[in-house]
Amino acid sequence: VAGAALLLLAVTSVPLRAQEVIGPEDYHTIFGLSPRLVVWFVAEMQLLFAAFLLGVPIFALIAEIVGWRTGDEKYDRLAKEFTSLLPVCSAITAVLGGLLTFTLLYGYPQVTGYLAGIFGPTMAIFGLLFLAEVVTLYIYYYGWDRMKARKGTHVAIGVLLNVIGVFLMAIPNSWATFMMSPEHEGAGLINPANNAFTGTVWEAVANPLWMPLNIHRFIGNIMFGGFVVGAYAAVRFLGARDQPARAYYDWMGYVGNFIGIAALIPLPFAGYYLGREIYSFSAVMGNNMMGGQFSWPFIIQGLMVGMIFIIANFYLWVGMGRIAGAERYTWLIKYINAILIVCFAIWLTPHNLPLSGQEQAQIGGQYHPILQYFGLMAAKMAAINFIILSTYVSFMLYRRANKQGEVRVRPQGARAWVTVLVPAGLSLYLLGSYARGLWTMTPAELLGRDPAAVAPGSLAYERSLMLPPVYLLAFMMVMVLVAVVLTFLERGKLAQVLYVGAGVVTAVFVLGVYGFRVMTDLNPYLRQIAVTQVLIVLSVLLVVTGIDIVLYRGAESVGRVRWGQMPPRSQYALLALAVTAVMTMGWMGVIRSGLREDWHVYGVLRDTSPWAFTPPIDDMMLVVAGIVVTFLFLVTVVFGLSGMSRGGREAPVPAMGGPLAVEGVADE
Amino acid sequence: MSDAPAAVDRAEGGRRGAVAAKVVLFTLAVIGFFVLVGFYVARIVGSAGASGAAAGAPATGVSPEVGEAVFWGKGKCSTCHSLGDRGSAVRCPNLLDIGGHTDERARAAGLADGTAYLVESLHDPSAYVVAGYSGDTMPKVFQPPISLSGDEIRAVITYLQSQGGTVDAAAIQLPPDMEGGPGGAPAPAGAWKPYLAGDAANGEKLFRQGRTGVPPCAACHTVAGEGATVGPDLTDVAVIRGPQYIISSIVDPKAEVVSGYQPVMPPNFADILTVREIHDLLAYLMQSAGLPPDGGAPPGG
After folding, report:
1. Are A496 and A504 in contact (CB under 8 A)?
2. SS3 assignment, position A272
3. Contact state of B30 with A579 under an 8 Å Cβ cutoff
4. Of A241, A572, A583, which is closest to B12 when you measure between CB atoms?
5. Model confidence, pTM
6. What is the pLDDT of residues A38-54, one digit of tens each?
7. Which ipTM was obtained for this model?
């Protein structure tokens, strides 16, 4: 990788030709294949391995810290077992990185030279950071047993490994997002005469979509790491010879899934932020994503995300079967299931479904009289928020499945105050600052318009449309205070029910319905409605989790978890989660990159190659499926190589027992 | 007896092989499901097996038919605008019968006719925003990334004219900067003409004194030796840069800032001056440069 980075640095000295217009002669096929196909395949493979290399250490570090703080050796072993995969994985990632560089240089020399001319210094830093990552990884892995007595130091090295990993992710993200959004509106950093970038390296790095993509990929990598661990455990569970092995791998799958879902729940928020910024950068690109050429791929992406949520819930419900005491909550599952299925159907309903003349005649128009409303953004926002809240409730039920009653909060002292008040305070800040913004900003400011260009009557009306969200945010702030007071009056469970209920009513039902009115009367304000919904749901996650931790801290167990007593279908659910997550990553990669259409650098450097067209959906899917199959095969090889390094012997599994492990994960 | 452990190992190996086969088949089934979805959707959309390169073949000529293809395709107009029941976009106004409404909108905006209104709405999409819609949604379609050619823009305008109005391709006068996209013929020099014949005397008064709510141009610019030097001398600007440059500099001062000067000109002249007043100023600057004040505008505006 360092060599590849140096090579890229060398090409920075290659000047673009006079007019910087790239012609067909500037592209080369690779072994007779289109360079786009080759670069697409290699880049996506590299990205998936990089996600593995960055996601698994996050998982390993969390597991190691839990094991360290709880004294449970199983977590430490789990963390080490997965860290053992990383040396091989880093080698494959490096090879793929080099391969990607070479394919780019050969297939797209002018484009690569243009980008290297701008990002050269960051490419050199990237090479050095990769070296630092590998060295730190080796110290982290090979120092595991040697630093047994100095766990704090070892954990610190793990933290360093992850910090380097975040920077390793962020640097190439800047190259990819520069190609989508080279500069902030009106920045004037691109010289239109010759396409030269006239800003600093930092200005190129900090382009409009860089941070949204960083956040989305970071959370996505945590989810990916968790689900990969879950899938590995599922395969081992299915092949386990005896009950102790099944128990251990059941537990491993449970921990992987726990971390995967914990990251999955906030992921749609990060996706929303990224999508919103795409719209802000370019309405053309945003509209193309949601309502234009990529609306159907986006619906398929919705199918994938919806499936991840439903499968994750399914695993939680099956898992409750092995937890003594969970039967108290199983009656709720059918309702949660019904909510998920209805919301999933709404989430998937397309707005612009092309109909034949006969079909239109049958339903009396281009749109179905009822289903047409489900295709609108207002309905989809309500649906996804309800899916998130339902999954969260499933997660909470799972967490408390074998807990016997709640513990008293006040005797816990300052620890309880901090645990409840920090998330409650953060929620108050988020809700309050946004409400204040809606209250004080004029409608013209909210939409970035010149006030003089808007009729005064229209301004008053627009302002009146924004008042209901302000009132709802204020109502939720009052509910935060009510929930805190109830918690310290030892009525924490009631506080949770009230706050979740208030969140569902306001974010899903009231704002869901109100969104239709805003869409009809003043469409651009739907963004403010969506942000209000997101903040309310986020506050539910924060406030209720804080209360839950103090409510069940050290609570007695109804009975032991019957580790290993899981039907095989639960393990196939874990497998499906990982495969669907990888498919989604590949598919979203196509959408993100495809949004540039026939531009290498959007609006600046046009792709004049014969392959500058958006492929048909079936072609896209075949390529992504090919990438995913290859990736999963290589990951299996990585697991096999890791097993060979242990001499092919099965290490004895640790004995299972003790309380429900979720206490350790969530409380630490 | 010694064969017993080996038999157990073989049985165990067989069991693990069966599990591995199930896992592989299940994984392929999940991936296969998504592939089927992809093929199903491609069939619905009608793109199955289509060549993407062929799909991008450009339409040529100026006619409502070509305009329709551009409107619903390359121009991406339909991602924000619907036409009656056709399309589902709600982000920007529904253009049902737009051809029959533009004259009315043109009158309200002080423009010559509906065609001029359509041209101006495409040239500066934030100039005449319909109440209730955002002013920053619509891009300039003649600039990247959409980059329509002049003829493609003309075709779209004829398509819009055909929606409840009369198609008149000859009446479409595009400013030179709208001609630049690939496939569009470059505009002949001096082809741009003012929409109205301005009143040079009123223009001079505005330039020197301003009016309520409008500061005088002379506070920053000089003509014939009188005025301030915060901005460039405008005495001969009509000869040096042409009339269209003057209009665009008033409407969008930041679009091009003369070398050596700061971009301090207020951006709101498009909002506080009427279209007629802008043409009055143009007439004054044409006159100061020794050119005919009407710049070739149609008689009577």
Report:
1. no
2. helix
3. yes
4. A241
5. 0.75
6. 999 999 999 999 999 99
7. 0.84
